[in-house]
Design goal:
This protein is an alpha/beta fold. The protein has two domains: 149 residues, Medium-chain alcohol dehydrogenases, catalytic domain (Quinone Oxidoreductase, Chain A, domain 1, Alpha-Beta Complex), CATH 3.90.180.10; 140 residues, NAD(P)-binding Rossmann-like Domain (Rossmann fold, 3-Layer(aba) Sandwich). The strands form three sheets. Strands 3, 4, 5, 6, 7, 14 and 15 form a seven-stranded mixed β-sheet that branches. It has a six-stranded parallel β-sheet with strand order 10-9-8-11-12-13, with helices on both faces. The longest helix has 23 residues. The structure holds NADPH dihydro-nicotinamide-adenine-dinucleotide phosphate. NADPH dihydro-nicotinamide-adenine-dinucleotide phosphate binds next to helix 1, helix 2 and helix 3.
Amino acid sequence: MSSFKAILISRDADKNQSVAVTEVKDENLMEGDVTVAVEATTVNYKDGLAITGKSPVVRHWPMIPGVDLAGTVLESGHKDFSAGDSVILNGFGVGETHWGAYAEKARVSGDWLIKRPDGISAKQAMAIGTAGYTAMLCVMALESHDITPDRGPIAVTGANGGVGSVAISILSKLGYDVIAFTGRMNEAEFLKSLGASEVLDRSELSQEGRPLGKERWAGAVDAVGSFTLANILAQTKYGGAVAACGLAQGFDLPTTVMPFILRGVSLLGVDSVMAPLSVRKEAWSRLETDLDMGKLEKLTTEIGFDDLISSAHDIIDGKIRGRVVAVI
Ligand code: NDP
């Protein structure tokens, strides 16, 4: 009987969580019409929440975490995929309600998969991962709101994180002026090397501010939420837009209606998890052209399968710069 290596999050009768590397039998794989040999995965903030148990991300026990995978189809009963196809999966509840990517094998619904673009390797796809694909969705949201480079700079919060660092790289390649906000000013040169024209300390945004401030940016990509997002909105130029995708500071939004009703500022919500396939395909195709793969390499750290658990703790502790990729 075949089995495969996996990281398994379990819970005892008292709901105490434990995480271990273990062997899982193929026959226990969850329902799905495509079985994939996982080649690479990554560590997203959500994977950190699942493994540390800091937030109730896991909703089926036991769970193989990992919201992102790149791999090769082993068997398929789905009309769009056959054995040998190179595929990517981001989200759709994988690693939360359905066994995920931190394993040598995954069985999933073919409706959740997309074919990996030719110009992106499995390792690069996971260096991008949900964080990078979400950064692309944020840029697309700003574009759909006509926030073009001539309208002014774009602020990026959580700049050293996965979403932030990829957003800076994409925006600078597209010709935007980027103002990066970070709590790690010692990484200012790194952020400039990705394309930030200015790097500022995030502390200026992290406390309660005024309902409206000086108009500083035409748009923003915000991965942080809370007071940071409120202050970003208050300093967005007339007619500007802010793409909000994260909650690294908090899920609250202590703002007023002033930026919306006096400056016509728009708040654009961005979700990657359940985004329709057409949007995913567009985002991945844009990543192939609009993300400089040299910069992607610069912001990526490669780890082994056995480092995934400690890296999940590191991302929650704010110790990871850019993106992490694990080759299985
Ligand atoms: P990372 O952990 O890689 O980056 C988060 C960054 O936020 C950190 O590196 C840090 O940047 C900054 N940060 C952390 N804590 C605080 C704080 N208290 N106040 C202000 N800034 C802080 O995570 P990701 O980039 O992968 O994800 C970012 C956020 O986006 C997360 O909340 C995640 O859950 C969310 N997300 C949402 C998605 C969606 O579909 N909507 C998809 C992907 C992610 P620095 O050190 O530069 O200050």
